[in-house]
């Protein structure tokens, strides 16, 4: 792969970022904060104009929040955000390269965090630095807000993004647009689908559990706590939430209809008129399925520690992604009707989903204009529902609109986030940097 000098610079910078093992942990006392300091040293080296021209607030253990006052306009502030932390590597033996080596292999930068989301961190910082170096100054107030605990639920501290939001709140800041991870550009035939997230399903965790006296496995009697719990798991999984169309999902399907092939085109163009066919498609398509209802996934379980001991306590964790229109309370009530006698449920974490942002909000209009300039008529902008959660939900209470979009063009060379052998093509970096440069100038 022949990279330009500019592309080589972006690749080298991302390699340095990946070599900082900024792994978050639910217990902040178990985080190696020196890795975040190492990352900040790279920021100071690569982005001198950001550090010299923008006011910096250091928030929490590793949060960085930059502010550049605008020259004067009636536009509300723009905030670009990303998170510095990454998830655990898992079993390192499964990786074919060093997860924190940042190696360039077959044209791809390899390592944990390349696609979640140090690539976004890079694109935003590079764009702002380049514009500032050229002498550009915004008419609007510009913020960069970099979190450090997006990948975990903190057990012994307030989340970093919550602290960063409070820092703005205490100053009386009201944001116009927040841009965070999610979405991107996806090839569909000879077209490009620009998926811009305007809402998220809310990640909520429940636990179901059963207790019993326990005992020796040679005298199980009529069953065990684990067996009772298993019946509850089967009952809940056998009764998924019914499908329904939210206004956002309806808009998403209709906007993406002309990118579909075969019968899907007509079904997506008129989902309500083809409801039965849409539901049949969803049964075979997990992504479409997740757009149409609150989903349930049993992911963890515990019982006895030894095979010859009857468990006195058995528990299973449910990861529930709550769709707008449902609530934590309504979900818990829904599950209770399927619990056999002896099984209880408790809410562990997570909150009600927030309302969707306006798909026609100012920031999205600017993004659509920029994307048309960048890619021409082959790009179609499609508002969509993020199935996962991001730190942006903290900022929603002080922002008019949240836009989840990375500016990156995806292809088959990418290694998926959170998976073994995570990687990103080096020649993909410039497209996102260019998007953010144009977006900042046009906002």
Automatic annotation (TrEMBL):
GO terms for molecular function: metal ion binding; metallocarboxypeptidase activity. Belongs to the peptidase M20A family. InterPro entries: ArgE/DapE_CS, Bact_exopeptidase_dim_dom, Pept_M20A, Peptidase_M20, Peptidase_M20_dimer. The keyword Ion transport does not apply. The keyword Oxidoreductase does not apply. Coiled coil: none annotated. Keywords: Carboxypeptidase, Hydrolase, Metal-binding, Protease, Zinc. Residues 199-339 form the Peptidase M20 dimerisation domain. It comes from Acidaminococcus fermentans (strain ATCC 25085 / DSM 20731 / CCUG 9996 / CIP 106432 / VR4). It comes from the Bacteria. It is an enzyme of class 3 (hydrolase). One of its GO terms (biological process) is proteolysis. Its EC number is 3.4.17.4. This is Gly-Xaa carboxypeptidase.
